[in-house]
Design a protein that fits this description.
This protein is of the alpha/beta class. The chain is 31% helix and 22% strand. The protein has 17 helices and 23 strands. Helix 10 packs across helix 11 and helix 16 packs across helix 17. It is globular, with a radius of gyration of 23 Å.
Length: 508
């Protein structure tokens, strides 16, 4: 948790930001987005309570640390709190259990009694981002992949430039101590670029739906002035029929960008070009790798670990850093372009990115274990990574392969946990996604499709099991000195990192 947040006085913040305090009760408060929203509301001087099924850390610990009362479950007795407004997360639905009873009885009671409610994104827009008294300049990061990392990069650049941005990010940026905060100071004309008239707020702009009563993508509520379109491919098969349906939502996002705003898009993506062709009412800049050098506003040349940045074909600096992967090169270029829109020079952005520490659960080293009889200079490394879409799996593994070369084996342990992956919509892409790994281990619990068949193209390089302990034992049995074991899931993966570490130590 950010110490600057923890010790701020909510009443003083409410006065500084001219917020009219209210009591909100948040349904689904422990989700990444809703937990961040709760923290922002509390920092802004509002009274916040909330509920969830299985109130769990680390979010529960963060929220309780902010003085937010958390309630287990969705019981109707919570109506007795008498909040001014119920804020409903998209985890809540009208679903019934096998006995025909409502899964979320509190929501049913709210509807029955005609009590006021709204969605998280709408409340955020109306009460934080775009208040009449203190509107923010919103910088939104949209795309199928890399939203959290890119938003973290951009927030850090603005922080490094002493612009004190607010942010709401779906992860924990290691350069900060929290996943959400309000702008820490009011803009000062003497210390800020002349073009900056409003406090800055960086947000991860998710295309997932807003709530059970609002099926638009969350990002249509944010009304950004700086809008980054990082990439776009099919995902969220549980709510979108096809890629065209997602492109339409991205087009709706463009409709909210004012003519004085700027859209910054990845020129390699044909899907984004189709989105732009549907209509564009603001300034526009493109970014790309050197393959599109003559055609894009922002370009890069060189390998991921050290590359030149060019603007309008002219070099503006070289970025040498520790973050790996071609995808992160592109993320960095997008951030440099976005920061430039609010007056930060490319040179200063590059300087900031040399100190970027990435995000928790992005190639996060969890353990190093030296096996018996092996040199301590060649431990088995166990990494945690959030990748779950086939493209994200592919780019992450390629980045790791580029880093270790052919001197180490890569063992990929992954859980197809997202709704899209559980449906099997992208199972055919998995063999290609795993090509950079020497061995792949798939946790198949909860899948309705045959993972072993889907991975048959990998032959004896792929193993599947619905038993986590069996999977761990198999990984440990194959582990050798200098192996890089990367665990990929968008959930907790049953604590596999510790289980693997224990199994490797037992083997040692």
């Amino acid at each position: 948790m950010d110490r600057s947040i923890r010790h701020q006085n909510p009443k003083r913040l409410a006065l500084a930001h001219k917020i009219v305090p209210m009591h909100i009760h948040i349904l689904g408060i422990c989700g990444t987005f809703m937990g961040g929203l709760a923290a922002l509301a509390r920092q802004g001087g509002h009274t916040v309570t909330g509920c969830d099924a299985g109130v769990y850390p680390p979010m529960s610990d963060q929220l309780r640390g902010l003085g937010i009362e958390l309630i287990e479950g969705y019981g109707i007795e919570q109506l007795n709190l008498k909040p001014d407004l119920f804020v409903v997360g998209n985890v809540v639905s009208r679903q019934k259990n096998t006995a025909g009873l409502a899964k979320y009885p509190l929501m049913e009671a709210i509807l029955d009694q005609g009590l006021p409610y709204t969605s998280g994104p709408q409340w955020l827009s109306e009460h934080i981002l775009h208040t009449a008294e203190n509107p923010y300049h919103v910088l939104a990061i949209a795309g199928t992949h890399g939203k959290t990392t890119t938003a973290s990069m951009l927030a850090w650049i603005l922080e490094f430039a002493k612009l004190s941005p607010g942010y709401l990010i779906g992860g924990v940026p290691l350069n900060f101590e929290s996943s959400a905060r309000l702008p820490t100071t009011s803009p000062s004309k003497s210390s800020k670029p002349q073009t900056l008239k409003q406090p800055l707020f960086v947000i991860e702009a998710d295309e997932y739906d807003t709530a059970f009563f609002d099926k638009r993508s969350k990002f249509v509520h944010y009304r950004p002035k700086t809008c980054v379109l990082n990439n776009l491919e099919f995902d969220h098969a549980d709510i979108f029929e096809n890629l065209q349906a997602i492109e339409k939502q991205f087009h709706h996002l463009l409709r909210t960008v004012p003519q004085s705003g700027r859209v910054i898009f990845n020129a390699h993506e044909e899907s984004l070009k189709r989105v732009l062709s549907m209509g564009l009412w603001s300034e526009c800049e493109s970014f790309a790798s050197q393959t599109l050098l003559p055609l894009s506003d922002w370009t890069l040349k060189g390998p991921p670990e050290s590359f030149d940045v060019l603007h309008k074909g002219l070099p503006v600096g070289q970025l040498t850093w520790t973050v790996q992967g071609v995808h992160n090169q592109m993320n960095a270029l997008a951030c440099i372009a976005a920061a430039h829109h609010v007056g930060v020079s490319a040179e200063l952005s590059i300087q900031a990115l040399t100190q970027f520490q990435n995000v928790r659960r992005r190639m996060e080293l969890k353990a190093q274990v030296t096996l018996a009889g092996q040199p301590s200079t060649k431990p088995v490394n166990v990494f945690d990574d959030f990748a779950h879409h086939p493209t994200a799996i592919k780019t992450t593994l390629e980045g790791l392969r580029r880093q270790v070369g052919n001197t180490a084996r890569i063992l990929c342990v992954f859980e197809p946990r997202s709704n899209t992956m559980k449906l099997g919509s992208m199972k055919a892409l998995l063999p290609n996604s795993l090509a950079s790994a020497d061995l792949s281990f798939c946790f198949t619990s909860g899948l309705d499709w045959d993972a072993q068949e889907a991975l048959s193209a990998l032959g004896d390089k792929a193993f599947c099991s619905a038993d986590l302990n069996e999977l761990v034992a198999r990984v440990a049995s194959h582990a050798q000195a200098n192996d890089q074991i990367i665990c990929m899931s968008n959930g907790g993966f049953g604590g596999i990192h510790q289980k693997l570490t224990d199994a490797l130590k037992a083997k040692a």
